[in-house]
Amino acid sequence: NEELWVQSVLEMPKRRDILAIVLIVLPWTLLITVWHQSTIAPLLAVHKDDGGDSRRDLAAGLDSKEYCLSDRDIVEVVRTEYVYTRPPPWSDTLPTIHVITPTYSRPVQKAELTRLANTLLHVPNLHWILVEDSQRRTPLITRLLRDTGLNYTHLNVETPRNYKLRGDMRDPRIPRGTMQRNLALRWLRETFNKNNSQPGIVYFADDDNTYSLELFEEMRSTRKVSVWPVAFVGGLRYESPKVNAAGKVYGWKTVFDPHRPFAIDMAGFAVNLRLILQRSQAYFKLRGVKGGYQESSLLRELVTLNDLEPKATNCTKILVWHTRTEKPVLVNEGKKGFTDPNVEI
Amino acid sequence: PPRRSEAALPTIYAITPTYSRPVQKAELTRLANTFRQVARLHWILVEDAAARSELVSRFVAGAGLPCTHLHVPTPRRYKRPGLPRATEQRNAGLAWLRQRHQHLPPPQPGVLFFADDDNTYSLELFQEMRTTRKVSVWPVGLVGGRRYERPVVENGKVVGWYTGWRADRPFAIDMAGFAVSLQVILSHPKAVFKRRGSQPGMQESDFLKQITTVEELEPKANNCTKVLVWHTRTEKVNLANEPKYHLDTVSIEV
């Protein structure tokens, strides 16, 4: 600052103003020295933030037309004290949320699971059931799960390949993730006794969606099956259950086949564990399921429309987004691969 | 982590340019979920907008971490495909940091990095960048047409660049692949991202050569052999079924 000031002063053309220069520079030098040493400096900084002048100083040396920073625009939000461990300590009173995530190997897999884990690590009493579409549990997933510190169960089942089609094509008659979700349901039924009163909620969370933390707290109070809107499905900003004045679901606000028994996305509902254990034969239908009817194939065995519990303020808030990740451009890998395959991505 | 050791940690400043599109709130949500796991992280969110939007303002109010909400619009002439993006927004973040620390006594230990809102960050990355003395670098996954790009390291020093695109750049690195100590930013007050004379893809290189040399770079992530950040991109959303007429009776934010 001092340097800039002196420089602009020296650009003044008249030499007779040297005395003026000294008279101007000297007090600033003294002031700045005092400023650095003074204990009131922090207070001055605060005062400056409340005033407006410092904002215009920002424009010095930059094209001031391209900056519009004014006091009102700078909003600082102070975090309330939020001391937590990662994941939060287990609570005896909260129902456990069993999050079932099918996953399969592709370049973005580790990235997707990493950012999903970063979200799940906030949620108390969360049990992550990660089911790989693979012949064996892979080292990548094994390491990832261990390193997160989450409470997890690592399963795998391979969707049969369709050997008639070339390449790595799975059987297209079986929707992606179905066998994996069903395996998780079976694991729950084998692990938990339906007479055991361990309260739990089951939620199907695909690895590329985006979940707010609020969503998990909404689903925790599920008695049978709860539902809520999902963004970016069915070619819409969001799809949503239709809720009447009595707080009951009576239909579905969708464009794509709203007459499905349950016109809802996988990310739009949660089921009480007790119900999963009681209706022990309820699974996602494996074959012969029309597009968009997967969710119905399970839900119609569990619950009727009338029993659905609307969440997210009577289904008026978006707490989950059906985001999809672009396939990364790997053209520079060439046919044989260029980068070191031992470097895990 | 207990408060006492938190106070001694350098603050990490994440400068995130953001712009309005359907997935904006989703991207910011999952980014916040990651950032909230990191101690002493200060988020500088800069909207590409002429005014603060309600969506981002509301989001910031409930974000759950220290957050500074700025905005600066990109001039229309720079919004052509092929031109660098988010230049004005990143510079606004730098300007805010410089102004804020103008009157505070040094040293104010801090590290800043540029966190685009659609990338994916592992928690380990923040541990690695926190020890940055001047400028640190690391590999980035899913970029440059490859599984990853990375600085090539020999004897703890960066000697070259393993990249799929224009390896002849002085700093052949992605925006997500480096962090700068606050001290360096404050001691180079004129270092900004440039528009004039900057070719596409040269943003990072043109910026870094104003503040450091290849020799000075600090390799992180196990001598740049681990991928701790991925240049993920989110698909454009299919809104084909949104009605032109007979809009909904309620207005719901996505």
TrEMBL record, chain A:
Binding residues for UDP-alpha-D-glucuronate, per the UniProt record? Answer: 102-104, 133, 176, 181, 206-208, 322-324
Q: Which residues form a coiled coil?
A: none
Tell me which InterPro entries the record gives.
Answer: Glyco_trans_43, Nucleotide-diphossugar_trans
Q: How does it sit in the membrane?
A: Single-pass type II membrane protein
* Bilayer-crossing regions: 18-36
User: Where primarily located?
Assistant: Golgi
CDD domains per record: GlcAT-I
Provide this UniProt record's keywords sorted from A to Z: Glycoprotein, Golgi apparatus, Manganese, Membrane, Metal-binding, Phosphoprotein, Secreted, Signal-anchor, Transferase, Transmembrane, Transmembrane helix
Its subcellular locations are:
Golgi apparatus membrane; Secreted
Which residues participate in Mn(2+) binding? Answer: 208
Feature type site, description Interaction with galactose moiety of substrate glycoprotein: 239, 332
Q: Name one Pfam family in it.
A: Glyco_transf_43
Task: Give the protein's function.
Answer: Involved in the biosynthesis of L2/HNK-1 carbohydrate epitope on glycoproteins. Can also play a role in glycosaminoglycan biosynthesis. Substrates include asialo-orosomucoid (ASOR), asialo-fetuin, and asialo-neural cell adhesion molecule. Requires sphingomyelin for activity: stearoyl-sphingomyelin was the most effective, followed by palmitoyl-sphingomyelin and lignoceroyl-sphingomyelin. Activity was demonstrated only for sphingomyelin with a saturated fatty acid and not for that with an unsaturated fatty acid, regardless of the length of the acyl group.
Give the protein's recorded name: Galactosylgalactosylxylosylprotein 3-beta-glucuronosyltransferase
Q: Which gene encodes it?
A: B3gat1_1
UniProtKB/TrEMBL annotation, chain B:
Q: How does it sit in the membrane?
A: Single-pass type II membrane protein
The UniProt entry annotates the active site at: 204
The residues that the entry says bind UDP-alpha-D-glucuronate are 17-19, 48, 85, 90, 116-118, 231-233
The reply on keyword Transmembrane is: yes
Q: What is its EC number?
A: 2.4.1.135
Q: In which pathway does it act?
A: Protein modification; protein glycosylation
Q: Where in the cell is it found?
A: Endomembrane system; Golgi apparatus membrane
Against InterPro entries, the record matches this protein to: Glyco_trans_43, Nucleotide-diphossugar_trans
So which residues have sugars stuck on them? 223
Q: Which residues bind Mn(2+)?
A: 118
Q: Which domain of life is it from?
A: Eukaryota
* Gene3D superfamilies, A to Z: Spore Coat Polysaccharide Biosynthesis Protein SpsA, Chain A (3.90.550.10)
Keyword annotations: Glycoprotein, Golgi apparatus, Manganese, Membrane, Metal-binding, Signal-anchor, Transferase, Transmembrane, Transmembrane helix
The UniProt entry, under SUPFAM superfamilies, shows:
Nucleotide-diphospho-sugar transferases (SSF53448)
Task: Enumerate the cofactors the protein uses.
Answer: Mn(2+)
Name the enzyme group at the top EC level: transferase
Q: One Pfam family name from the record?
A: Glyco_transf_43
One GO CC term, this protein: Golgi membrane
Question: Where exactly is the site Interaction with galactose moiety of substrate glycoprotein?
Answer: 149, 241
This protein's record includes keyword Protein biosynthesis? no
Q: Name one GO biological process term.
A: carbohydrate metabolic process
Q: Which family does it belong to?
A: Belongs to the glycosyltransferase 43 family.
Write the protein's name: Galactosylgalactosylxylosylprotein 3-beta-glucuronosyltransferase
Which organism is this protein's natural source? Uria aalge (Common mure)
Q: What is the name of the gene encoding this protein?
A: B3gat2
